[in-house]
Amino acid sequence: MELILTRLRFTCTALETIELPAYSGSAWRGVLGHGLRGAVCVTRQPRCDDCLLLAQCVYPRLFEALPAGPATSTSVNPARYRAPPPPYVLEVADQQPRAIAPGADLTLGLTLIGSVNAATLPAYLIAALQRAGTRGLGRARGRFAVATLAQERSAGSDDWMPIYRAADGRLHPCQPTTRPPPPCPEQVQLELITPLRLKHRGRLIGPRHLRAADIARALLSRLALLAACHEPQAATPDWAALHRAAAELSLHHPRLRWQDWTRWSSRQGTSMQLGGLLGSVDLAGPALPRLWPLLWLGQWTHLGKGTSFGLGGYRLHRAEPAGPTAAAAADPPQPCRR
């Protein structure tokens, strides 16, 4: 599957004490959105949906739920969905302290999806984060300054090169590439590093009811929609066949828990109680080699709900082959409970 990913990492310097919430993805998304709107909006209208520049503006492309366009794929029709998925995923540092002292660094990771977005958005994001720094981050609105922006040479390589330094003010992005996945193991451990929110028959899936097919089909649906909306000219696999293959994937050794978190919605003017699965599961079965390249890619696109906040992030590790009793975790579907 050809899906261009541009992985960016901002390093910012705290100018005042910054107090971050337990999960800072929502806070980062909020200040980034406010910063981008302030940087690019020329009409200053309170709403985007009736703006004359709606189709050309960068801000609604990232932060507004615009109607999906016409079908661009024979297997996925974006018009079936209320809005296309945003062409980015936030990645917040999981080991970063919640209290950032003045002079200390804090980082924000962001993955852009699609070749057009890779070419046009980095400069806008720098301007947005610079403006956000003057507004402040966290409960006390601690101010910060953008110091550098680095880009990973290829997704998953952990080879980062600086492409922007505030000291000289010049941006030098490199052409993003996608590294091929390593050989498929007999069994893989999927570690959930940010809360995963999946639904089955309209209800959130809890720790006791997650199946391998839930993970695989959610990922396939997300990748197919991302490709149709943000890389429509790229060659894509047979999604229907892959969905059928997902039934042959098995889940073993679930080590899962439910974690709630609260975010403040400035648009709705209220706090929202959200939650998702954390922990790990092992995946195996005859379908694993066929699904392996997409599982590998999904580490940087995330899956489930709330990916624009950084939710649904996972990492893959080689696991020991399943024992004869491990298949008990792949029971038939049950009513979903938290």
Could you explain the architecture of this structure?
- The chain is of the alpha+beta class.
- It is built from six helices and 15 strands.
- A five-stranded antiparallel β-sheet has the order 3-5-1-6-8, covered by helices on one side.
- A hairpin with a 4-residue loop joins β13 and β14 (270-284).
- The chain is globular and about 50 Å long.
- It starts with a strand and ends in a 20-residue tail after the last strand.
Topology summary:
Elements: E1 5-14, E2 18-19, H1 25-40, H2 58-63, E3 88-92, E4 99-100, E5 105-113, H3 115-135, E6 144-152, E7 154-155, E8 160-165, E9 177-178, E10 188-196, E11 199-200, E12 203-204, H4 212-230, H5 239-245, E13 250-265, E14 270-284, H6 288-301, E15 314-318
Parallel strand pairs: 7-9
Antiparallel strand pairs: 1-5, 1-6, 2-4, 3-5, 6-8, 10-14, 10-15, 11-12, 13-14
Helix pairs in contact: 1-3, 4-6
Shape: globular
**Helicity, in percent?**
10-25%
What's the β-strand tally?
A: 15
Give the biggest sheet. 5 strands, antiparallel
Total helical segments:
6
Spatial order of the strands forming the largest sheet:
3-5-1-6-8
Mean of pLDDT: 87
- Helix-and-strand structural type: alpha+beta
Question: N-to-C terminal Cα separation, in Å?
Answer: 34 Å
- Report the sheet-strand fraction: 25-35%
Could you list the spans in which at least 5 consecutive residues all have pLDDT below 50? 68-74, 324-338
Taken in chain order, the helices and strands follow as EEHHEEEHEEEEEEEHHEEHE
Instruction: Specify Rg, calculated over alpha carbons.
Output: 20 Å
